[in-house]
């Protein structure tokens, strides 16, 4: 009987009982695991030795057509041809470019250039460039491509649609309205200064805005807005406000204006909710704003007297808005403001041209 310790020592120290060694060169048909480093080197060498295939003709055609289409669109946009951009021809060209780009994408050698062509087509197309052209056309008002000769003729009408030209020629000129308005404002300031000691600040200069003629163009008429004048002192007492308006009413009567009326109380015809929205309250005694009005109908002059009073502002919102307005215009935060407005005025300098152009518009 073999001792177990002896048998264990025999397997540890000797080769007795171990599997036989493989024959030289290994067993036939045995699979071998390649060295990963060697495989990487072989692949790199094979890749470096394989020549790169140039892009095919379809890829180049897609790229060139995409660039040419983008150049055509931008040229049309810069020339102001918004209508041409949205035309049938441009849409057909865009579909053609898109089709060529997609055709290049499905080919292995043209895929890269096809992708570039498709990117150009997505960036420069009738939608994006046409939108820019529409914005430019809207800002400049140049819609020549869609206008008939009759529309272009009406666009140059010197008057205002719905206003008889005889009334325009018969009413005071811009220069006359300016002179009478400035004189009236000066008299109002003088009377209120004499009676109540108010001092004044001018908020901005007069403004002249061209009037639209109702046919898509500008007339030769302008809207006149005088400079605003405001008291440097606040006016908060209800009775004092009424006294101020009485003085203004007297001066307006001396300058051939109708009696001044209140727009901020129930006599104006506005309901309480609207009065609260416009003036801060339906009760004139607690309103943030007083607004009174007069005109010289059938003349063009319109007069506005407005009193701003922050003493009734419980939330602080009205005060903040007035302070912001004062920062923009330089006007006082509180107190009285007076101004004139007159629409559809013809300057003496434009009268001859106005009458000359009217000869091309019989019956207007």
β-sheet strand percentage: 5-15%
Which stretches are low in confidence, meaning pLDDT under 50 for 5 or more residues running?
A: none
Q: At the first level of CATH, what is the class of the largest domain?
A: Alpha Beta
Q: What percent of residues adopt helix (DSSP H or I)?
A: 40-55%
Major sheet: 8 strands, antiparallel
**Which fold does the CATH topology of the largest domain refer to?**
TBP-like
List how many beta strands DSSP finds. Answer: 8
Search tags:
8 strands; 14 helices; 364 residues; 49% helix; TBP-like; alpha+beta; 2 domains
Task: Explain this structure.
It contains 14 helices and 8 strands. By secondary structure, the chain is an alpha+beta fold. Strands 1, 2, 3, 4, 5, 6, 7 and 8 form an 8-stranded antiparallel beta sheet that branches. It folds into 2 domains: 90 residues; 185 residues, TBP-like (2-Layer Sandwich), CATH 3.30.2030. The model has no long low-confidence stretch (mean pLDDT 83).
Condensed summary:
Helices cover 49% and strands 13% of the residues. The chain has 364 residues and is α+β, with helices and mostly antiparallel strands. The chain has 2 domains: 57-146; 166-350, TBP-like (2-Layer Sandwich), CATH 3.30.2030.
List the helices and strands and how they pair.
Blueprint (H helix, E strand, L loop, with lengths): L3 H10 L22 H14 L7 H22 L3 H4 L2 H18 L5 H13 L2 H15 L8 H7 L9 H6 L3 H23 L3 E4 L3 E6 L5 E8 L2 E4 L6 H17 L6 E2 L9 H8 L9 E7 L6 E7 L8 H13 L5 E11 L5 H8 L6
Antiparallel strand pairs: 1-4, 2-3, 3-8, 4-8, 5-6, 6-7, 7-8
Helix pairs in contact: 3-5, 3-6, 3-7, 5-6, 10-11
